[in-house]
Amino acid sequence: MIYDDVVAPILDDMLTGMNCTIFAYGQTGTGKTYTMSGDEKHINGSFAHDAGIIPRVLYKLFSALELEYEEHSVKCSFIELYNEDLHDLISLNDDPVVNNKKIKIFDSTSKRGGITIQGLEEFYIHSADEGLKILQRGLRKRQVAATKINDFSSRSHTIFTITIYTKKSSSSSSTPSSEIFKVGKINLVDLAGSENISRSGAENKRAREAGMINQSLLTLGRVINSLVDPKSSHIPYRESKLTRLLQDSLGGHTKTCIIATISPVKDDLEETLSTLEYAYQHSNK
Ligand SMILES: Nc1ncnc2c1ncn2[C@@H]1O[C@H](COP(=O)(O)OP(=O)(O)OP(=O)(O)O)[C@@H](O)[C@H]1O
Predict the structure, then answer these.
(1) Domain membership flag for residue 237
(2) Contact 131, 125 (CB under 8 A)
(3) How many whole angstroms separate alpha carbon 149 and alpha carbon 161?
(4) Taking a C-beta distance cutoff of 8 angstroms, is the pair 19, 185 a contact?
(5) Are strands 123-125 and 42-43 parallel, antiparallel or unpaired?
(6) Cβ atoms within 10 A of the Cβ of 283, count?
(7) Cα–ligand 1 centroid distance for 154 (angstroms)
(8) In sequence order, what are the beta bridge partners of 21?
(9) Where does ATP bind (predicted)?
(10) Distance CA 59, CA 62 (A)
(11) Residue 170 — pLDDT band, cuts 50, 70, 90?
(12) Is 26 labelled as part of a ligand binding site?
């Protein structure tokens, strides 16, 4: 239902050449990873019954591309942000020292501005199955980290990015034929557990983690606030790596959607409800 109501229209926008972002936001254990990835196995050439948004986007994307475009290419990347450090989840290089040091974010030197991410590996994929394999590889890598650091997944953000390049010929009786090239992008973001924001009394490592999550989720909130406020002249992308990474996909001619996951068995529903209320008020912007 969420795919049909929320994600399908955004995928259509991406196919028209937009930069789009979907966030899963909520407390630990409320279903963010289930919503974004879910069951990531492929069954009989399609996604599983309990597949999340990423596998569904991959299959629907390839069927749309094969049906509607003469030429297309698709690439994807999968990155994790933990304590403001970036980790490539699908790099074939497993040396953690090399992996952790090599990803850097720079201001792009192109006239259009934006950012360049140096050192992040991107893989061309030719089918949804190939995309699913990349997702599985990244989730496995994240799992390995999770067994080393207790409760790791709830304290890191992940971004699965799909970029498409398409070519279509257009011809009508009144105009000469021409070729239309488009580039679209979709970021599928599984955010760190939002309850870390209010984690008080934390010490040492936990305090550092909570501080970083605080910084990135609060900056994300501030960036979205500034983008929807016509009076705001400054967008604070630079205050966290999460917003810096997504800088090109927020604001301007882009589309952003936040899916808030809530669970009635969790204590602190107040914060999630106020987020939902805020999101609702801004939903048309
Ligand atoms: N809608 C759902 N239907 C069935 N099971 C679900 C649903 N949502 C979540 N779950 C199950 O609940 C558990 C926690 O979900 P999940 O790991 O997605 O939470 P999370 O918000 O990503 O947590 P964390 O912040 O710790 O990463 C998992 O075992 C998941 O399979």
Answers:
(1) no
(2) yes
(3) 25
(4) yes
(5) unpaired
(6) 9
(7) 11
(8) 187, 256
(9) 26-33
(10) 5
(11) confident
(12) yes
Q: Ligand 1: distance of its center to the CA of 38 in Å? A: 8
Which residue has 């289930």 as its token pair?
34
Q: Establish if 225 belongs to a structural domain.
A: no
Q: Is 31 assigned to a binding site?
A: yes
Sequence length of the chain is 285
The CATH number that applies at residue 267 is 3.40.850.10
- Neighbouring C-beta atoms of residue 183, cutoff 10 Å: 12
**Which domain covers residue 102, as residue numbers?**
2-201+244-276
- Distance linking the first and last C-alpha atoms of the chain: 23
The pairing of strands 104-107 and 115-118 is antiparallel
Distance CA 42, CA 47 (A): 5
Which two structure tokens, joined as six digits, stand for 96? 């953690």
Which pTM was predicted?
0.88
Domain count, the chain: 1
CA triplet 231, 232, 233: central angle to 5 degrees?
A: 115
Tell whether 281 is covered by a domain. no
Q: Would you say residue 125 lies in a domain?
A: yes
The tens digit of pLDDT for each residue in 22-79 reads 999 888 888 899 999 998 888 877 888 899 999 999 999 999 999 888 899 999 999 9
Q: Is 233 exposed, middle or buried (0-12, 13-18, 19+ CB in 10 A)?
A: exposed
The radius of gyration computed from the CA coordinates of the chain, to the nearest angstrom, equals: 19
Q: From the CA of 70, how far away is ligand 1's center (Å)?
A: 39
Name all residues whose Cβ lies below 6 A of ligand 1: 26, 28-34, 153-154, 193, 261
Q: Consult the annotation and say whether 28 binds a ligand.
A: yes
193-212 confidence digits (pLDDT tens) = 876 555 545 566 667 777 77
The answer to whether 220 and 236 are in contact (CB under 8 A) is: no
